[in-house]
Amino acid sequence: MTEPSETRITVAIVGDHPLVLAGLHSVLEAAGDITVVAEASDGDEVPAMVATHAPAIVLMDLSMARVGGVEATRLLRASAADTRVIVLSSYSDRARVEQALAAGAVGYLLKDSEPAELLAGVRSAGRGHVPIDPRVAGVLLPTSDADATAEISVSGLSQRERE
Fold first, then answer.
1. How is residue 132 annotated by DSSP?
2. Taking the CB of residue 123, how many other CB atoms lie within 10 A of it?
3. Nearest-5° angle of CA 134, CA 109, CA 131?
4. What angle (nearest 5°) sits at the alpha carbon of residue 32, between those of residues 30 and 33?
5. Strand pairing of 107-110 and 84-89?
6. Are the C-beta atoms of 21 and 138 separated by less than 8 Å?
7. By the 8 A CB rule, do 100 and 94 touch?
8. Blockwise average pLDDT, block size 10, the chain, 163 residues
9. What is the pTM of this model?
């Protein structure tokens, strides 16, 4: 399961379910090329955690008690340009995905993914890529040919042409 790597990828995990955190920690550490450097149980802990541990990647849950993942991602992006956020959520609706990506997340994976898919996503983000679960990518695509045509036909026009 371990992929050859010259350097270990450092990861912090943010989520409010202790059992999920423990499971993620175990899966990531077992990979051999990934090290979990910190965990947080709420989004309000993220800026201090990242300042202290400087992880390359933060795996971020969306739903937490005090500060949710979208707001925590915004706070993190404002303070730590080098740390990349991957949302790890059970939600795949268009609105939440768009909010997370607009806040600065570089990836969006689903909690029902296989462990190998999670590891591939973390490694991908570690190489500077954008890991998006195919099911999530599907919700971001236009829902009909008319939507796609409308976007394409307007996007190539100048302001004057649109008027």
1. B
2. 18
3. 70
4. 130
5. parallel
6. no
7. no
8. 67 95 96 96 94 96 92 89 92 92 95 95 96 91 60 55 52
9. 0.82
